[in-house]
Each structure stands twice: as structure tokens, then as C-alpha cells.
Amino acid sequence: xxxxxxxLLAIVVAGATASGSSALAQGWILDRSARPNELQxxxxxxxxxxxxxxxxxxxxxxxxxxxRLRLEGTFLFPLPAxxxxxxxxxxxxxxxxxxxxxxxxxxxxxxxxxxxxxxxxALLEWxxxxxxxxxxxxxxxxxxxxxxxxxxxxxxxxxxxxxFVHPLTxxxxxxHAGPHRDGQTLxxxxxxxxxxxxxxxVRNLYSPTNKLTVKRSGASTLVEAGGKLDERARSFVLYYxxxxxxxxxxxxxxxxxxxxxxxxxxxxDPPVVRDSRRVAPRDIVFVxxxxxxxxxxxxxxxxxxxxxxxxxxGEDDRFGLVAFSSDANAFTDELVSTAEVDDAHFFVxxxxxxxxxxxxxxxxxxxxxxxxxxxxxxxxxxxxxxSTGVVMPKEILQNARANNTTDSRIFAxxxxxxxxxxxxxxxxxxxxxxAEYIGPDENIEERVxxxxxxxxxxxxxxxxxxxxxxxLSELAPRxxxxxxxxxxxxxxGRYARAGKTVITVKGTLNGVETTQQxxxxxxxxxxxxxxxxRVWATRRIGVLLESIRLExxxxxxxxxxxxxxxxxxxxxxxxxxxxxxxxxxxxxxxxLDALTPVGAVVRRSERFAPEAMSESSGKDAVEMSKAIxxxxxxxxxxxxxxxxxxNILGQNLVQTGSGNWLTQSNTENAPEWxxxxxxxAYFAFFQMYPDARAFLKLGNEVAFLFRDQLxxxxxxxxxxxxxxxxxxRFGS
Length: 732
Prior knowledge:
Elements: E1 22-24, E2 28-30, E3 40-51, E4 54-64, E5 71-78, E6 83-92, E7 95-96, E8 99-102, H1 104-118, E9 131-139, E10 144-154, E11 156-158, E12 161-167, E13 171-173, E14 191-197, E15 201-206, E16 211-217, E17 220-226, E18 235-243, E19 248-254, E20 262-269, E21 283-289, H2 297-310, E22 318-324, E23 328-330, E24 336-337, H3 341-349, H4 359-369, E25 376-382, H5 393-403, E26 409-415, H6 421-430, E27 435-438, H7 444-455, E28 458-469, E29 472-476, E30 483-484, E31 489-495, E32 499-509, E33 512-522, H8 531-551, H9 555-568, E34 577-579, E35 589-590, E36 601-603, H10 619-632, E37 645-648, E38 651-655, E39 661-663, E40 672-676, H11 680-688, H12 693-696, E41 702-706, E42 709-714, H13 723-730
Parallel strand pairs: 3-14, 21-22, 21-25, 25-26, 26-27, 39-41, 40-42
Antiparallel strand pairs: 1-13, 2-5, 3-4, 4-10, 5-9, 6-7, 6-10, 8-9, 11-12, 12-18, 14-17, 15-18, 16-17, 19-20, 20-31, 22-23, 22-24, 28-30, 28-32, 29-31, 32-33, 34-35, 34-36, 37-38, 38-39, 41-42
Helix pairs in contact: 2-3, 2-7, 4-5, 5-6, 8-9, 8-10
């Protein structure tokens, strides 16, 4: 029976505690026996200054020794491809420490030693790069040593797109680093900041590993990476485009094999608007539920939210107010200018909560105020189900569609769990807007104010997209939403054959109708950026789930969801997995309703309770709506810890309860080659066939199909192989 590999490294840069978690590590501290010491990385920061595609990267941290022993070792750092080593320095406690740059061959030998001793196949990612090595002075028990590392890097650029990569190499399996104790703090996640200076506009900022916060000041753009790094992403990766065009385009693709469809992710970013006064004026109507269920703190917070928005209207904006309970009561029957804001505040302050919930009349009154003169927006907030007037959600939706003759956007807010998610989601989807849900413990004023700050400046509206040339299919989103200040449109889809295609984007840009064409070159083979396929699959599943929620279950849609979920390892309401620990080499993956053997591991997600797909109100319905929205908007993709599936180069692998990765492909007629982990044959194989590294990095026991043969890596098998042996088996 295979056992779970121990992934051991010394300096930890992500993860809060050791218990039940794993973490990333940058560099290694090794003792003379090449085994990791019990050291911690604290106050870890990565700062990059990029000017005209040249990056100066500074890494600073404190290495702490929590043990009772005096420790001494060697610091090893993998250089990213293209790093200018002449500017590479290492400082410890302010003093420059001598080191050496290991050339590729020696670096590879060092890596192979680490892989064998530390059992970390993830290091293969940097095996062809250079390695910097420096001695770390003794660290006394309980003491820390400050280190600063600096290197220069010329960034890759393809057309307008620039790519910055900073290695965060290795992994730590909790509970296995030296005399480790449960609950011991491992270290804090790194703080990553990137400052970009350029004469051209810096746009389409995107990271597949982190959510980004962007701040602009003159010609400088400051990017901060937040959230936890994807544990399988061995680097921090940032893409951005440099463009002065009206619409900046960034294209990322993934197509592992010519005989299979490719995937693309196209990011379209309108011009950077640094002066909000340049944004076109608009019309907005606030519709506020004042029924009896809103009494108390809820109505007080809702009044504050509306007042906040009123104070931030543009000088030339027009607005309206509708309060509704059993009847709908408008501040005025027509839109008014901002000269009426003081009276509007008085109207809002007098609102009291009582009566029923007449949603249909409130929407009709709000929609009647809007005309075709300007873009129209409705902010609709309710905490209840329709109880007076027209109460059937489908009829309310039909009436809203008929009354929305100006193609206005309806942003719906549901407060609490006693709301009809089908109704609110339908109102938003029909009008190319979105719905948000505010939990019972959340502050209404904070959530609505945050929303309003985002959408108060529409930059590009009424967007349509068409393509000529290579046929694009299964696009998501199907109907693009408006873009607001700071937004970028992300379009994902598939293509069957390589070639050139032209995307035509039409819309109203800052109040002016515009048409722009973007030429794309879709490649035959692109094995990098595998996250693109998973982004597409995640968004596609979100679109399909939304269709089922709003239109009812459809067998064809469910079949497609299940197929995508299994292929890409995405948990959905229709897919949960059962992994059994068989005596046979290959574990079985069965449906959740199959007979559960003793020792089985059930993988499912609490976010996707299957019964919630048919519910329209209540906590489960609200959580389902929020989860589907997250899928539709997915940009940062991480492997779900609750699913045992992963997709590599179009091949699915399943993780057993003991941590080993096994192919799900049909291997019945495939010749089997057993390869000994860490042997000469092992390293010769991945050096000759770099595209196999993605499989080998999963662990020291993995089985996968490669060039129609089953490769089984474990502690036994072939230990020696020449290039001729490998070519005779796998080809060139």
C-alpha cells in the first residue's frame, strides 16, 4: 500500500498553523546532511519595482530558530528564468554575505540531492534554472536573523502582455518538519507588492494565484497581492498589459494537445479614467423595502445606505426614490437633479417600517421613471417575500421585463434569508446586473455603500461581442455586464482549431458609442497556463447552474455539469466523490449514493447542498445563489481541498485517502512502466520529457498516462535508463 509522501522544507511563508494545513516555502535552509531544520520565516515581504519591463525584486524576512539548539545551514534560492545575477545580493542582519551562483548542471545535481533526501518532487519545476547558495550564520535558540535578497529580472513580453513571475518553491506537509508539534505557528503569508512605472497605461492586471488590490498615482501603479496563495502554485504570477488603445486586450490560452480543443481567457480593459468627472452622467432610482419586517436596526441601516449614495451622486446625475410596503410611495413621480438632495434626505429620514411587501408595484413605479436619454440603474433592496399585490415571482419577473423598455440595470439586494432568490437573481440576470445577499449579521449600510462606490461610475455599457475567423464556442459570460471604473471584462471560451480570429467589441464608452476590433492568434499547442482551462470550466458550470436555477432542471445541462465537474475536479450540487482504499493499486471513484465501504473518504462541499437547487428562499437558497455567482465570476482558481480530482494536460487524476495520485484514464491496453522515485532513470525521464514534470511534481507515488503508456512512480521499479532506452519507449 502506498503511503502519503512527506514534503519537507524549512522556511515557511504561508499558512497560519500547522494543524491540518500545508504551506509554501521560498528557498531552503539545509544542514550538512541535507535535512531541513526547524526554522520559521517571519515578517516575509516581497517587493518588486518594475520600470520599462526591468524588475528589481527585494525579498526580506526574519529567520527564527524556535528550537533549543544552535542551528547552522545553507540558504538555497532558485533564480527565476532570465534573472540578472549581477544584481543578486544576500544580506543577513545588514551585512552582505558571500555566496555563489551555481550553474545549471551543478544546480540540477543539487536539486536531485534535495529531491531524494527531502522527498519533494515539486522542486523539479526549477531544475533547469540557476541556483544561488549562501551560508547562513549560526542562529541561537530563540533568536532571529534578518535577511534581504535582491535580484534584477528582465520580464517577458508578448505583444502588449507582460508576465512577472517570482518563485515560491517547495511545500511543507504539516507535522513533519523536525521535532514539529501540533498547533505550532509556521509563519505568516508573504506580503507581495509590485510597483509598475510606465509611460503607457498599465491595464488588465491579473494573477491566477492571488486577488489583487490596485492603486494608481500618475505614471505609477501599485499592486498588492492578498489572500492565501494556491498551494499548488509554486510562484506568484502577475500579468498586465501596456496599452494606449481605447480597449486593452490580454489573451491567455491553454491547449495541451493539438487533437483536443483549446481554451482561452481574454481580458478587455477600457481606458484608465483617473478623473471621475469624465464619466458620463446617469440616472439612478433607489427602491427601498419599508415593510414591517424591516423594523429596527435594518431600516436604520438601510436609511444610512441610501443617504450615503445620495451624497455621492455626480453633479449631472438624476435620481429617484421609491419606498414600498403594502403600497409604493415615490419621493417624486419623475427623476430630479441633485439640487433636490436635501429634500430627498428628509424623505428618507421619515421612512418607517410597517405593512406588507408589494415588490411588483415598486418595480413598476421605478421603471416608469427611467427613459432612453441616459443609462438607467435601479438599486433594489428588500428583506422579504412578495406578500401583497402580485405575489407570484414568475409574474413579477414577466412584468419587470415588459416594463423595462429602457434596458435599465436592476441591482438587487436581499437582506437576510427570507427572500426569494429566484426572483432577485432573475431581476438582475435579465437586466445584465447582479444580485447580492446580506447576511443577518452583516451591516446593510456597509455592504450597500461598498457596492455603490464600485458602480457609481459606469465606464462602458451595453457591451456586445462578436467574432470572425476561428470559431469560438461555449463563451462565458454569454451576455457581458457593464464595466465600472476599475473593472475589466474577462471572456472565456473554447476553440477547436488554431488560427487567427477577430473580436469585435461594441458598446458605449464614457457616453460615446464605440466599436473596436481585437486580433487574436490562437495557438496549436500551449501547455503553460493550465489555469485558463479551469477558469473556463468553473465559469461554464456557473452559467449552467444559473440556467437550472432560473428555468428548471434540464437533463442535458446536468449531464454537462457532471462531465465538466469530473474532468476538472470541481465540486457542484450534482457531483460529490467517494474514494475507496482498495488493496489494488488504483482506487475506485464512485457516485456518492453508491454503497459506502468501510474506510471510504467522501468528498463533498457544504456550499452545494443538492436540495438547495430546488429551493427559492431560506439560508440554503441564499448560499447557493452566492456560490453560483462566485463560479460565474471566477478569476483566481485554486484546487478545491474537498475534491480529490485534478486535471493535468487534459488528463484526470484522483487522489486516494493515503495521498497518492492515480490516473482516471482507461489504462486497460496501455503498457506499464514502473519508475523508481529519485533514481537516475527518474531524473533522466523528466529531463528528456519536460511536459511530464507536471505529473511528477504531485508526489513520490503517482501513476499517469504518458504517450499512451502507463507510468507508475513509486519506491520500486526501473532505476537506470539511458536516453536511447527512453526514446525507444516514448519516442523523441
